[in-house]
Design brief:
By secondary structure, the chain is of the alpha/beta class. Helix content is 49%, strand content 11%. It has three domains: 218 residues, HUPs (Rossmann fold, 3-Layer(aba) Sandwich); 127 residues, no CATH class; 82 residues, Arc Repressor Mutant, subunit A (Orthogonal Bundle). Helix 13 packs across helix 14 and helix 17 packs across helix 23.
């Protein structure tokens, strides 16, 4: 494996990116154009996170994709650019997530801000703080460069106060935007402001009976009494559609991605933003991730793959590749997608070093690895290693690495990527593949074909290369009258590996060894 870094110089990128079709470049150019027209000195991108449940893989996807745009902006412009990861941790907890321990703690603290609820994990200062720490921990795993912002901190410190006053001064205009979208009952009590009850600490969805812009207060009824409360310093928070719009102005946001299900919300918040006196940011909606049953992945349900699961089965670059592809296409996210995504990533990786600069910026590797291939070529596939592990019955990474190095002596034992790939494959075979194996018992006629395969393999030199072996296997299929040679290979995979597809069989034999392969076939025929 060649570890030489292959990149494109900055001047070359700016020259060749004019016609780039890769979606991060398309988005970057749109953002830069607007920033330059407004004479901005800094571009700010935002990703939002609601920490009412544990961070999930969809959260990672939003940050990963936004980071790809950030890298494209840096390549195209001298304007400073920053990614803000915003946590709406002052939101009131509406329901108890299914995948949280000590649920009674959360049940007793429903409707309180997330940062005012004890941590059911008994690790952090609050439930909100625990989830914020988890968010930052897994973002740091991927070396994302971001500035973390806490809603609680910005509200209670007074950072949002100017914009809260702006909302109060435009109170009726904002209500006129929101009310037509609500049901009749909700219309009666709706207000952009949600007071924090001084007695219970609950985030109150109550009717505001009057506002006082001179004092920056709102008045509501509590226990049959009128309560006048300040909107400043965290005494009130905003309904989230108005909160989203307010944040764009307060943090000077230029760009934000969001899930397709939030299109109507973005449109509504954009109207609120204009009512507050500023243009909404450039934006991009992406399709949602689905679990194996086609249901939306939910942080409260905990369905679908977690980041930790993916990283236990494949290197982090393969997950970034999954996020890069077709953001506007809904994708199922479950175990079986990991080998496929890994092998597609490896295919792009192996092309990168020989591509022209124009081709490189269209290659997902450029966007995943910020313009550089620091891994080099990897001439084995995930599925090939998976079958090596299954066939050999070995779960020692060193033994599997020796098999791989036998095929490609340039592969380094010190490669973090290769070692993570092999360890991940071993875990995947143990946890996932072994549960799906269904070996085919060959018929009498099929046994004769495998006996012929054994005979011809014995006639091969022990150091025969993959192409020579593959040619002989093709010939066996032709000699035994397979109309479609795919059926011959399918039979091999079913009998030897217990599944309907597998690696290029000649390559497998070249790595595993002719004698070992013969032994494998004989064992399966028994």
């Amino acid at each position: 494996m060649n570890n030489m870094v292959m990149s494109i110089n900055m001047q070359s990128i700016r020259e060749i990116s004019k016609d780039a079709k890769a979606w991060p470049f398309v988005e970057a150019k749109k953002i830069i154009k607007k920033a330059e027209s407004n004479n901005k000195q800094k571009i700010r991108l935002q990703t939002g996170y609601g920490p009412s449940g544990l961070p999930h893989i969809g959260t990672f996807g939003e940050v990963a994709r936004t980071t790809m745009i950030l890298n494209a902006i840096k390549s195209l412009s001298e304007i400073e650019v920053e990614l803000i990861a915003f946590s709406d941790d002052m939101d009131g907890l509406r329901k108890v997530p299914d995948n949280i321990p000590n649920q009674k703690i959360l049940e007793e603290n429903l409707h309180k801000p997330l940062t005012s609820i004890p941590d059911p994990f008994e690790i952090s200062k609050s439930f909100g703080d625990h989830n914020n720490e988890m968010l930052q921990e897994f973002l740091d795993k991927f070396d994302f460069k971001y500035t973390f912002k806490s809603s609680t901190e910005l509200y209670t410190s007074g950072y949002f106060d100017d914009q809260l006053i702006n909302v109060l001064n435009n109170y009726e205009s904002i209500k006129n935007i929101i009310l037509p979208t609500l049901g009749e009952e909700r219309k009666k009590t709706y207000s952009p402001f949600l007071p924090i009850c001084p007695d219970t600490g609950h985030v109150l969805e109550v009717e505001i009976i009057s506002i006082n812009p001179d004092n920056n207060t709102v008045t509501y009824i509590s226990k049959n009494k009128e309560v006048e409360q300040s909107i400043l310093k965290g005494k009130c928070k905003l309904q989230w559609k108005v909160d989203w719009a307010m944040r764009w102005g307060a943090l000077d946001i230029d760009y934000e991605m969001y899930g397709k299900d939030l299109i109507p919300t973005f449109q509504l918040s954009s109207k609120v933003s204009r009512a507050l006196g500023y243009s909404p940011p450039e934006n991009y909606f992406y399709e949602l991730f689905l679990d194996q049953n086609g249901e939306k992945i939910s942080k409260s349900k905990g369905n679908g793959l977690t980041i930790e699961e993916w990283l236990s089965y494949a290197p982090k670059e393969t997950l970034s590749y999954f996020m890069y592809q077709n953001p506007r296409r809904a994708k199922k996210l479950f175990h079986d997608i990991i080998p496929k995504s890994s092998d597609e990533f490896l295919s792009h990786l192996n092309k990168f070093n020989t591509q022209s600069d124009h081709e490189k910026i269209e290659n997902p590797v450029w966007h995943i690895m910020n313009g550089e291939n620091t891994i080099g070529n990897v001439n084995v596939t995930y599925n090939l290693i998976l079958n090596l592990v299954a066939a050999s019955g070995k779960n020692d990474p060193e033994i599997i690495l020796d098999f791989v190095k036998k095929y490609d002596e340039n592969i380094s034992s010190n490669s973090e990527f290769i070692n993570n790939l092999i360890k991940g494959v071993i875990n995947f075979e143990r946890d996932v593949t072994s549960e799906q194996i269904n070996y085919k018992t060959p018929s009498r006629e099929e046994r004769k074909i495998f006996e012929d395969l054994i005979s011809r393999l014995r006639s091969q030199a022990e150091n025969a290369d993959a192409e020579t072996i593959q040619t002989e296997i093709y010939q066996i299929g032709k000699d035994h009258k397979f109309e479609n040679l795919r059926d011959w290979f399918k039979l091999i995979y079913q009998v030897l590996f217990g599944k309907e597809d597998g690696p290029r069989f000649g390559t497998f034999i070249a790595i595993y060894g002719i004698k070992q392969t013969i032994k494998l076939i004989e064992e399966k025929l028994k």
